[in-house]
């Protein structure tokens, strides 16, 4: 069954996961639903800028860290901390986009 294998490989989005109480980002999603659309759009732009900034730090960690920084700590930032921040920010964008889709479907 090829169709079953393909569906099994599909992962739910951060927005889908946040729908269930107790799941990651659920409370945060509820807070986003209360915000005006203009604020949500601004949040997406801000998160996109933060992602670009973190990506630039990963590419050149010494642009963020001073020369006296512990190289092991810089490597931790580059390989774990900043990629984790980017993943969380992408999840937040996904959730905000889901909230905006909810609003668009409610207006039809």
Unreliably modeled segments: none
* Mean pLDDT across residues: 92
Q: Helices and strands, in N-to-C order? A: HHHHH
As a percent range, the share of strand residues is: under 5%
> What is the 3D shape?
elongated
Radius of gyration: 18 Å
Number of strands: 0
What structural category characterises the helix and strand content? mainly alpha
DSSP summary: helix tally:
5
Helix content: over 70%
Q: In whole angstroms, how far apart are the ends? A: 37 Å
Largest sheet: none
List the SSEs and their pairings.
Elements: H1 2-9, H2 14-18, H3 26-33, H4 37-59, H5 71-106
Helix pairs in contact: 4-5
Outline the structure in words:
The protein has 108 residues and is an all-alpha fold. The protein is 74% helix and 0% strand. It has five helices and no strands. The chain has helices at residues 2-9, 14-18, 26-33, 37-59, 71-106. Helix 4 packs antiparallel against helix 5 (71-106). The protein starts with a helix and ends with a helix.
